[in-house]
Specification:
The protein is an alpha+beta fold and about 190 residues long. The chain has 4 helices and 6 strands. It has 2 domains: about 100 residues, Ribosome-recycling factor (Topoisomerase I, Chain A, domain 4, Orthogonal Bundle); about 70 residues, Gyrase A, domain 2. Helix 1 packs parallel to helix 4 and helix 3 packs antiparallel against helix 4. The protein is elongated. Keywords: Cytoplasm, Protein biosynthesis.
Amino acid sequence: MADEDLEIDLDDLARRMDGAMNALKQEFASLRTGRASASMVEPVMVDAYGATTPINQVGTVNVPEPRMVTINVWDKSLVGKVEKAIRESGLGINPQTDGTIIRLPIPELNEERRRELTKVAAQYAEHARVAIRNVRRDGMDQLKKAKAAGMGEDDVKIWSDEIQELTDAYIGKVDAALEHKQDEIMQV
């Protein structure tokens, strides 16, 4: 077997770890921090035209003020359905309708709710760490196969160290993102 066949694809491992980071960022974006964000309504699905549709496909989502999200619904017949979807989404926001514009005032978070949200953020971060460790395990499995196919002990050690460095770097990114999100949530 040629030496090229025995190499581990670190770029593929890094790409998969990036995927875990992107998923974490999306989960963090959906967490309310007491500040308005268009991404907080992204997971809301509306029953429109006989199908469940993301809210951003039935209206324009804007953030005109730091504590207000507005949704300008394009089809007047969907205003009630959008309002219902927001109420049932679990965001804890009471929509106010004005014609085709739905306003979502973001209430202040109390201390207890902030602490709950930091725990949720920590759970999201732990899921990302697990995903990254799973990618690491896949890389180590590739390494075992390469060793069985004739890779030398020194090369195995070098690749093993590189995979571990990559894993440590991504775990560090998750920890930094979590710390930033928790600071953002706890900020009054």
